[in-house]
Write the C-alpha coordinates for this entry.
Amino acid sequence: MVKVPELFANYVSSFAGCMGGNPDAPIWLVCDHAHQCDLPMDPKVAFANPQNDMNALTRALPSTCKCSGSVARLINSIVGNEEGEINKVFKPEGQEKDQPIFLMAASPVCIGLIEPQAWIEKPAVKTDDGVVTMAKYTGLPTYKDFINYLVAERGPVFQKAIAEKGPKIILCQGFMKANEYFKLFGADRTSVQANDFFLVAPVKDENGKVVSLVFVTEMLGFGAPDPTTEQQLELLQAGMEFRHYAYDQFGEGWLGKYAGELLTLGKK
Protein backbone atom coordinates (compact mmCIF):
# COMPACT_ATOMS: atom_id res chain seq x y z
CA MET A 1 0.00 0.00 0.00
CA VAL A 2 1.31 3.44 -0.95
CA LYS A 3 2.26 5.64 1.99
CA VAL A 4 2.12 9.26 0.81
CA PRO A 5 4.13 11.64 3.04
CA GLU A 6 1.80 13.36 5.51
CA LEU A 7 3.16 16.78 4.58
CA PHE A 8 2.22 16.29 0.93
CA ALA A 9 -1.09 14.59 1.77
CA ASN A 10 -2.22 17.55 3.88
CA TYR A 11 -1.12 19.96 1.16
CA VAL A 12 -3.10 18.18 -1.54
CA SER A 13 -6.20 17.88 0.66
CA SER A 14 -6.69 21.63 0.80
CA PHE A 15 -7.06 24.74 -1.38
CA ALA A 16 -3.28 25.05 -1.68
CA GLY A 17 -2.25 26.53 -5.02
CA CYS A 18 -5.52 28.39 -5.58
CA MET A 19 -5.01 32.05 -6.42
CA GLY A 20 -8.28 33.14 -4.79
CA GLY A 21 -10.50 36.12 -5.43
CA ASN A 22 -14.11 36.10 -4.24
CA PRO A 23 -15.08 32.71 -2.73
CA ASP A 24 -18.77 33.68 -3.02
CA ALA A 25 -18.49 34.48 -6.74
CA PRO A 26 -20.86 32.78 -9.19
CA ILE A 27 -17.96 31.76 -11.45
CA TRP A 28 -14.95 29.65 -10.53
CA LEU A 29 -12.10 29.56 -13.04
CA VAL A 30 -9.91 26.47 -12.84
CA CYS A 31 -6.43 25.87 -14.24
CA ASP A 32 -4.73 22.49 -13.97
CA HIS A 33 -1.69 23.61 -11.98
CA ALA A 34 -0.43 25.94 -9.30
CA HIS A 35 2.25 28.60 -9.71
CA GLN A 36 5.69 28.01 -11.16
CA CYS A 37 8.34 26.85 -8.72
CA ASP A 38 12.09 26.57 -8.44
CA LEU A 39 13.46 23.05 -8.54
CA PRO A 40 14.59 21.19 -6.60
CA MET A 41 12.28 22.21 -3.79
CA ASP A 42 12.43 21.64 -0.06
CA PRO A 43 9.18 19.85 0.89
CA LYS A 44 9.30 21.35 4.37
CA VAL A 45 8.93 24.73 2.69
CA ALA A 46 6.99 23.97 -0.49
CA PHE A 47 4.30 21.87 1.21
CA ALA A 48 4.34 23.50 4.62
CA ASN A 49 1.22 25.64 4.35
CA PRO A 50 -1.96 23.83 3.30
CA GLN A 51 -4.86 26.24 2.86
CA ASN A 52 -7.89 24.78 4.58
CA ASP A 53 -10.00 27.93 4.74
CA MET A 54 -11.36 29.02 1.38
CA ASN A 55 -12.46 32.35 2.83
CA ALA A 56 -8.83 33.13 3.67
CA LEU A 57 -8.25 33.32 -0.10
CA THR A 58 -10.49 36.36 -0.39
CA ARG A 59 -8.26 38.87 -2.16
CA ALA A 60 -8.09 41.48 -4.88
CA LEU A 61 -6.91 39.81 -8.08
CA PRO A 62 -4.27 41.66 -10.12
CA SER A 63 -5.45 43.27 -13.35
CA THR A 64 -1.89 43.50 -14.68
CA CYS A 65 -1.29 39.77 -15.18
CA LYS A 66 -0.49 38.89 -18.81
CA CYS A 67 -3.68 36.85 -19.06
CA SER A 68 -5.96 39.33 -17.27
CA GLY A 69 -7.25 40.84 -20.52
CA SER A 70 -8.45 37.57 -22.02
CA VAL A 71 -9.94 36.40 -18.72
CA ALA A 72 -11.79 39.71 -18.37
CA ARG A 73 -13.19 39.42 -21.90
CA LEU A 74 -14.58 35.99 -21.17
CA ILE A 75 -16.03 36.86 -17.76
CA ASN A 76 -17.55 40.11 -19.01
CA SER A 77 -19.21 38.20 -21.81
CA ILE A 78 -20.71 35.79 -19.27
CA VAL A 79 -21.96 38.37 -16.78
CA GLY A 80 -23.03 40.98 -19.34
CA ASN A 81 -20.49 43.79 -19.29
CA GLU A 82 -18.58 45.41 -22.13
CA GLU A 83 -15.90 42.86 -22.93
CA GLY A 84 -12.85 45.12 -22.61
CA GLU A 85 -13.63 46.53 -19.16
CA ILE A 86 -11.03 44.78 -17.01
CA ASN A 87 -12.01 46.77 -13.92
CA LYS A 88 -15.42 45.11 -13.97
CA VAL A 89 -13.74 41.78 -13.21
CA PHE A 90 -10.60 42.64 -11.23
CA LYS A 91 -11.32 44.91 -8.28
CA PRO A 92 -8.96 46.82 -5.95
CA GLU A 93 -8.45 46.08 -2.28
CA GLY A 94 -11.61 46.73 -0.33
CA GLN A 95 -13.81 45.54 -3.19
CA GLU A 96 -12.77 41.89 -3.24
CA LYS A 97 -16.34 40.70 -2.70
CA ASP A 98 -17.47 42.54 -5.83
CA GLN A 99 -15.34 40.36 -8.09
CA PRO A 100 -17.42 37.82 -10.06
CA ILE A 101 -14.67 35.17 -10.05
CA PHE A 102 -12.63 32.87 -7.86
CA LEU A 103 -9.44 31.39 -9.34
CA MET A 104 -8.69 27.77 -8.50
CA ALA A 105 -5.94 25.27 -9.18
CA ALA A 106 -7.06 21.70 -9.81
CA SER A 107 -3.64 20.55 -8.63
CA PRO A 108 -1.40 22.24 -6.06
CA VAL A 109 1.68 20.92 -7.88
CA CYS A 110 3.55 23.53 -9.92
CA ILE A 111 3.38 23.67 -13.70
CA GLY A 112 6.74 22.08 -14.44
CA LEU A 113 5.73 18.78 -12.84
CA ILE A 114 2.23 18.12 -14.15
CA GLU A 115 3.28 15.95 -17.06
CA PRO A 116 3.67 12.15 -17.08
CA GLN A 117 7.37 12.15 -17.96
CA ALA A 118 8.28 14.98 -15.60
CA TRP A 119 6.58 13.18 -12.73
CA ILE A 120 8.79 10.12 -13.07
CA GLU A 121 11.99 11.65 -14.47
CA LYS A 122 12.55 15.23 -13.31
CA PRO A 123 14.63 15.69 -10.12
CA ALA A 124 12.24 17.75 -8.04
CA VAL A 125 12.37 17.24 -4.27
CA LYS A 126 15.21 17.47 -1.76
CA THR A 127 15.37 14.55 0.67
CA ASP A 128 17.91 13.03 3.02
CA ASP A 129 18.73 10.60 0.21
CA GLY A 130 19.36 13.38 -2.30
CA VAL A 131 17.14 14.98 -4.92
CA VAL A 132 14.38 12.64 -6.09
CA THR A 133 11.46 12.69 -8.51
CA MET A 134 7.87 13.38 -7.47
CA ALA A 135 7.14 9.70 -8.10
CA LYS A 136 9.85 8.70 -5.62
CA TYR A 137 8.97 11.33 -3.02
CA THR A 138 5.22 10.74 -3.00
CA GLY A 139 5.26 6.98 -3.51
CA LEU A 140 2.83 7.47 -6.42
CA PRO A 141 4.71 5.74 -9.24
CA THR A 142 2.98 7.36 -12.23
CA TYR A 143 1.34 10.68 -13.00
CA LYS A 144 -1.95 8.84 -13.46
CA ASP A 145 -1.59 7.49 -9.93
CA PHE A 146 -1.16 11.06 -8.73
CA ILE A 147 -4.29 12.21 -10.59
CA ASN A 148 -6.31 9.41 -9.02
CA TYR A 149 -4.93 10.37 -5.61
CA LEU A 150 -5.72 14.04 -6.30
CA VAL A 151 -9.34 13.27 -7.14
CA ALA A 152 -9.72 11.07 -4.06
CA GLU A 153 -8.17 13.55 -1.62
CA ARG A 154 -8.77 17.03 -3.05
CA GLY A 155 -12.13 16.23 -4.63
CA PRO A 156 -14.06 16.08 -1.33
CA VAL A 157 -12.59 19.45 -0.33
CA PHE A 158 -13.79 21.08 -3.55
CA GLN A 159 -17.16 19.33 -3.44
CA LYS A 160 -17.81 20.50 0.11
CA ALA A 161 -16.99 24.05 -1.01
CA ILE A 162 -19.51 23.77 -3.85
CA ALA A 163 -22.20 22.74 -1.38
CA GLU A 164 -21.34 25.68 0.89
CA LYS A 165 -20.71 28.40 -1.71
CA GLY A 166 -22.95 27.38 -4.59
CA PRO A 167 -20.98 28.62 -7.63
CA LYS A 168 -23.13 28.41 -10.73
CA ILE A 169 -20.32 28.02 -13.29
CA ILE A 170 -17.07 26.09 -12.77
CA LEU A 171 -14.98 26.67 -15.86
CA CYS A 172 -12.02 24.37 -16.59
CA GLN A 173 -9.47 24.28 -19.40
CA GLY A 174 -8.50 21.19 -21.41
CA PHE A 175 -10.76 18.60 -23.07
CA MET A 176 -8.22 15.82 -22.48
CA LYS A 177 -8.68 16.27 -18.72
CA ALA A 178 -12.47 16.57 -18.78
CA ASN A 179 -13.12 13.28 -17.02
CA GLU A 180 -10.75 14.19 -14.18
CA TYR A 181 -12.33 17.63 -13.81
CA PHE A 182 -15.81 16.13 -13.64
CA LYS A 183 -14.70 13.64 -10.99
CA LEU A 184 -12.80 16.29 -9.01
CA PHE A 185 -15.89 18.50 -8.69
CA GLY A 186 -18.36 15.65 -8.30
CA ALA A 187 -20.22 16.26 -11.56
CA ASP A 188 -22.68 13.73 -12.93
CA ARG A 189 -20.72 12.08 -15.74
CA THR A 190 -23.84 10.33 -17.03
CA SER A 191 -25.32 13.71 -17.99
CA VAL A 192 -22.48 15.24 -20.04
CA GLN A 193 -23.53 17.48 -22.92
CA ALA A 194 -21.34 18.70 -25.79
CA ASN A 195 -21.23 22.10 -27.45
CA ASP A 196 -18.95 23.60 -30.09
CA PHE A 197 -17.05 25.36 -27.30
CA PHE A 198 -17.23 22.98 -24.35
CA LEU A 199 -18.36 19.89 -22.52
CA VAL A 200 -20.67 20.44 -19.56
CA ALA A 201 -21.92 18.26 -16.72
CA PRO A 202 -24.10 19.13 -13.71
CA VAL A 203 -23.24 18.90 -10.04
CA LYS A 204 -26.26 17.74 -8.08
CA ASP A 205 -27.10 17.80 -4.39
CA GLU A 206 -28.30 14.79 -2.43
CA ASN A 207 -31.86 15.43 -3.65
CA GLY A 208 -30.84 15.46 -7.31
CA LYS A 209 -31.11 19.24 -7.70
CA VAL A 210 -28.51 20.83 -9.96
CA VAL A 211 -26.40 23.28 -7.94
CA SER A 212 -23.51 23.92 -10.36
CA LEU A 213 -22.44 23.37 -13.94
CA VAL A 214 -18.90 22.19 -14.69
CA PHE A 215 -17.73 23.36 -18.12
CA VAL A 216 -14.55 22.13 -19.80
CA THR A 217 -13.31 24.17 -22.75
CA GLU A 218 -10.40 24.22 -25.17
CA MET A 219 -10.47 27.88 -26.22
CA LEU A 220 -7.03 29.03 -27.35
CA GLY A 221 -7.74 32.61 -26.33
CA PHE A 222 -8.68 31.76 -22.73
CA GLY A 223 -5.69 32.87 -20.69
CA ALA A 224 -3.69 34.00 -23.74
CA PRO A 225 -1.57 37.11 -23.07
CA ASP A 226 -2.39 38.67 -26.44
CA PRO A 227 -5.44 36.99 -28.03
CA THR A 228 -5.97 37.47 -31.74
CA THR A 229 -9.11 39.11 -33.11
CA GLU A 230 -10.46 35.65 -33.90
CA GLN A 231 -9.74 34.45 -30.36
CA GLN A 232 -11.39 37.54 -28.90
CA LEU A 233 -14.53 36.79 -30.90
CA GLU A 234 -14.41 33.19 -29.72
CA LEU A 235 -14.21 34.33 -26.10
CA LEU A 236 -17.22 36.60 -26.62
CA GLN A 237 -19.30 33.88 -28.27
CA ALA A 238 -18.34 31.20 -25.77
CA GLY A 239 -19.07 33.49 -22.82
CA MET A 240 -22.59 34.05 -24.11
CA GLU A 241 -23.02 30.28 -24.50
CA PHE A 242 -21.93 29.71 -20.89
CA ARG A 243 -24.40 32.36 -19.78
CA HIS A 244 -27.28 30.83 -21.76
CA TYR A 245 -26.66 27.38 -20.32
CA ALA A 246 -26.63 28.80 -16.79
CA TYR A 247 -29.76 30.85 -17.49
CA ASP A 248 -31.60 27.79 -18.77
CA GLN A 249 -30.59 25.83 -15.66
CA PHE A 250 -30.90 28.42 -12.89
CA GLY A 251 -33.25 31.11 -14.22
CA GLU A 252 -33.01 34.83 -14.74
CA GLY A 253 -31.51 35.84 -11.41
CA TRP A 254 -28.65 33.34 -11.40
CA LEU A 255 -25.96 36.03 -11.38
CA GLY A 256 -27.46 37.98 -8.50
CA LYS A 257 -25.62 41.23 -7.81
CA TYR A 258 -22.91 40.28 -10.31
CA ALA A 259 -25.18 40.74 -13.34
CA GLY A 260 -23.57 43.27 -15.68
CA GLU A 261 -24.84 46.49 -17.15
CA LEU A 262 -25.90 44.90 -20.44
CA LEU A 263 -28.22 42.54 -18.55
CA THR A 264 -29.63 45.03 -16.06
CA LEU A 265 -30.13 47.98 -18.42
CA GLY A 266 -33.65 49.27 -18.01
CA LYS A 267 -34.40 47.03 -15.02
CA LYS A 268 -33.34 49.43 -12.29
The two ends are 61 Å apart (CA to CA). The chain has a mean pLDDT of 91.
